[in-house]
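Margin note: ligand = nicotinamide-adenine-dinucleotide.
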Amino acid sequence: MKKVQKIGVVGAGTMGRGIIQLFAQAGHEVYCFDAWDGAVAKAMDFVTGLIERGVEKGRQSREQADELIGRIHPCDQLNDLADCDVVIEAIIEEIGAKRSLFKQLEAVLRSDAIIASNTSSLVVADIAAECANPERVAGLHFFNPVPLMKVAEIIAAVRTSTATVDALKALIDGAGHRAVIAADQPGFLVNHAGRGLYTEGLRIIEDQCASVQDVDTLMREAAGFKMGPFELLDLTGLDVSGKVMESIYEQFQQEPRFRPSSLVAPRIAAGLFGRKSGEGWYRYENNVRKDAPRIAAPALHAGIKVWIDGGADDHDSLVALAQQGGAKVCDAPDDAELILIQPWGWDVSSYCAQNDLDARIAVAVDPLPGLDKHRTLMISPITSSIARDAAHALLAQGGDVTIVNDSPGFVTQRILATIVNIAANIAQRGIASVEDIEDSVRIGLGYPAGPLSIGEKIGGERILMILDAMQAQTGDMRYRPSLWLSRRVTLGVSLLTPESSRV
Ligand SMILES: NC(=O)c1ccc[n+]([C@@H]2O[C@H](COP(=O)([O-])OP(=O)(O)OC[C@H]3O[C@@H](n4cnc5c(N)ncnc54)[C@H](O)[C@@H]3O)[C@@H](O)[C@H]2O)c1
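Resulting structure:
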């Protein structure tokens, strides 16, 4: 493989600047061009400013910084990129502009040079459509900020050659990022895998199961995510994310798994974009989020008669908590004033109907995070306030509690099972390898683990059970389990088991 020395960057905006910095730091000569007069100079100021700060903080010597800055070459015309081995395009997200630039680049560059697009939503084959040599065209999708987000997706379009993919992989590896390879499919890999958190979070609030703040709290404190779906949407901006949701849904031929929420359009129309507009799912004052205060736990109901479902995962711990709170643990549900259950996938109403339990005194405790983490209680539409408060008081002993309305799979089961199912389907469709799915989601989305590992930890059988139960209760095809998932559960093997090679 020919060693890539010279990199061209076209488009010196947010992404272009990061790409320039990354490759200059990796020791390449970087040539940058932008159609807007002054854009390259601004990008140079930005990048050199960062490098100078590195010197002030002792991260690099003056000499190293000067060498690094010397490797960045501002260009006045596209022709100045003629000797580049790889050119990365990071101009506006518009198919016409990209197509015509790629055609111009083909005329300027050597025949063995690679042309890559940083597009986040366009079909790479479409960008290459007017190129004479589409085999040297690929997607190269970075994340913002480029030097810190240490993953890049190489998009192999239908005509991209293996040699092009291999050369880009070596280039990215050499720059210290993790290179993952994805097929030219909507959302590629990371944006595709990231659908579950948003779509299911939105569906939960659409169904009035929980508040925005409660969903975020549970995803952070019970599921271990850095941010919940609404915090993330406020950060990226609903105007931007809303378009991505629509575009991926349409590009996947209205696949129910990606169906966007009707809650989004009115909020975009009202300018509730998120942090940048001062209000989104949350309100911000001086960029500080204004949260609703947490509801304080009620006083313990000493002597209340509690029955704890024998099938509950945390049966013994719940008995201990009830006794510690002065409750009387009884042997039969008929004698109880409060029933505690721990369903997987089922809501309180259905679980009570299936098990002949009185939903008026039933409260569910989410078994997924266990009692060590933030605890979720779930009530049926007819659970009495006495039963609800008694359960709240008992579970608030030594832990934080959030109460949600009836929902198949609480909040964490619903969202995590959806994330696992979408990742399994990415593997099923051969969009990326298991390893690349795992690493790209962990690095690119910052999830606590790769999505298939999350499923493996919960248990494939359990994930399947949650999805089946959600589909049975809602009748919604979005929850139908991926064949990747159901086959591996049927065979009793790990969700990370790749397909056997056919040849
Ligand atoms: N911003 C992100 O978080 C992000 C993340 C991943 C991918 N992307 C993708 O990266 C690309 C660039 O996004 P951005 O946020 O850096 O945009 P930006 O608006 O910050 O920068 C685009 C730059 O391209 C220049 N430009 C426009 N048309 C040009 C042309 N024909 N020739 C040369 N220069 C031209 C503009 O003058 C501008 O400086 C888009 O395809 C976008 O979808 C963006």
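The CA atoms of residues 199 and 270 lie 21 Å apart.
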